[in-house]
Amino acid sequence: MRRTPLSPGTLDSVDRAIINALQDGFPVSHRPFAEAGAALSLSEAELIERIGRLREMGAITRFGPFFDAEAMGGAFCLCAMAVPQAQFEDVMTLVNAHPEVAHNYERSHRLNMWFVLACEKASAIEKVADSIERETGIRVLRFPKLKEFFIGFRVAA
Asked: Which helix (H) or strand (E) covers residue 63, if one does?
C-alpha cells in the first residue's frame, strides 16, 4: 500500500487515459488487453506493461473485477480503526490477510485505517470484524451501508 502521494508529473497523459478508461469497465473477450489497448491506441503488451508499472508505483492499488456482494446475496460494511502509528504496518498486514477485506486505506485523522468488508453472508461481517479486533486488540467501528452512491474517479488527462 502506497503511503505517500505521487510526485507531480509522475503520471503521463497515457497513464491518465488508462486510469480513466479502466474505470468504465474492461472487455470480456479472448484478448481483453488487446481490445482495451486498441481503444487507447496502445498495443496489448504496452497496456499490460503500463498497468503493471501503475501498480508497482502505487498509482493503482489493484486491477481486477469489482463484485457486488449484495447482488449475490452477501453484504458490505465500511469499517474504521484508530491504529497507533507505530503499529500501523503490523495491523495493516493482519487486516489485509482477511480475504473479506476489499479495500484498505490510511487516513490522516484519529480513525486512520478504513477498509471495506465484503462477505458472502451478512452474518459474516460481525464474525470477521470481531476476529480483526481479537487479532489486533483494536476496536473495529462498523458503518453498514444505508444508501448506495456511485462515484466516478477521473484524473485530469
From this structure: none
